[in-house]
Amino acid sequence: MLGLARSEAAAKKLDAAGARAIPGNIRSPNAWLDSLPQCDSVIHAASEFADAMGEIEQHLLDNVLPYLAARAQTPRFIYTGGCWLFGATVIKWRLK
Question: Judging by beta carbons within 10 Å of its beta carbon (0-12, 13-18, 19+), is residue 2 exposed, middle or buried?
């Protein structure tokens, strides 16, 4: 199991839970996407509570979803959250 961690404290929490941390931030997905190994599924549960959270989320999805879809074995993508959190996020990518 892997988890994205933007701080050393978050990485330690993931380690304590038995997961390996990948350093990164949802604002900059291209900095960590190549660190993702082949996997069966990706669960998106991150959030950025900023005024621009909708734009941050859309940028994340615009980069992560095509990256995952281009893999030889496309992982299942589980998207959490809702319009109360991110506003009306339009997901324009469809995985295989």
Answer: middle
Residues 94, 41, 3: CA angle, nearest 5 degrees: 120
- Please state the pTM of the whole predicted model: 0.79
CA distance 47 to 53: 8
Instruction: Find the largest Cα–Cα distance for the chain.
Output: 36
- What token pair was written down for 24? 């990164």
Helix or strand or coil: residue 44? strand
Domain boundaries, the chain: 2-86
Cβ pair 90, 65 in contact under 8 A:
no
Q: And the tokens for 29? A: 């997905």
User: In this predicted model, what pLDDT tens digit does every residue of 30-87 receive, in sequence order?
Assistant: 999 999 999 999 999 888 878 888 888 889 999 999 999 999 999 999 988 655 555 5
CB atoms within 10 A of CB 92: 9
